[in-house]
Write the structure tokens for this entry.
Amino acid sequence: VQLQASGGGLVQAGGSLRLSCAASGRTFSSLGMSWFRQAPGKEREFVSGISRSGGGAYYADFVKGRFTISKDNAKNTVYLQMNSLKPEDTAVYYCAATTRSYVPYMSYAYDYWGQGTQVTVSS
């Protein structure tokens, strides 16, 4: 499976960005998808995940109410709509895919990773 993340950039605090992750090489509907992020000097952390069907969405507490994940199985793409961005959201964002039947919160449970896209939020 190849994952290609895009949509990062520089935005002011309070602004919005939409990240996309396009997948190829496997039936997309068989994959649970998530977004992780990693800021300089910090561990990679779970941001949001969505189940194979797209019917279940999960969020880290620090993004609840601000970020929305969605999955388009027809387009083989997962999205992360990020609103009300804060400087502390600055990080490299990675999309990841899992063949497990649930959406794990731990990075080691993911089978495939995209290359990452930089999100920078200025104050």
